[in-house]
Amino acid sequence: MQYNAENESVNKFDAETNKQFGEAVTALEKADDVKGLIVTSSKGVFIAGADITEFVASFKQPEEEIKDWVININDAFNRFEDLPFPKVAAINGAALGGGCEMTLVCEYRVMSDKASSVYQKPNWVSSQVLVVRFVVRVSSVSIMRLS
Predict the structure, then answer these.
(1) Does the domain spanning 2-25+34-145 belong to CATH 3.40.50.920?
(2) How remote is the C-alpha of 41 from its chain's centroid?
(3) Cα 92 from Cα 30, distance rounded (Å)
(4) Where do the domains of the chain lie?
(5) 28 burial class (0-12, 13-18, 19+ CB within 10 angstroms)?
(6) How far is CA 47 from the centre of its chain?
(7) Nearest CA to 51 among 82, 19, 83, 25?
(8) pLDDT digit string (tens) for 121-137?
(9) Phi/psi of residue 99, nearest 5 degrees
(10) Least confident of 38-42, 96-100, 101-105, 131-135
């Protein structure tokens, strides 16, 4: 699964990417011949996180719609994490916010020397989920570094 936001300098979880991610997870749940998955980025940044330019419009929505939006995104990450095959995050740059979460829903992480700020302090709605995933994943000592 390669992230490559066309016409953008970085990959980010905007509304379209979140939609495509959910669709990809649904397809992977139905696939019975997948043995493993590598998550990569074609940009110099792995994934920069949420698209903050969408926040103003999103936060003007009724509270129930905001709640559904966050739950749907979290559900896609949970479903991805629960896929019955190993997933590897090939981290080639900064992985911030949702990008950090993407690395944590993979069983394994490999990092290039360009990777940085992978596990930053979360600062928005999914912070509790990130902290729980971080503690579980780091305690499993599955972080490797590539030279």
Answers:
(1) no
(2) 11
(3) 29
(4) 2-25+34-145
(5) middle
(6) 7
(7) 19
(8) 444 444 444 445 554 45
(9) -65, -40
(10) 131-135
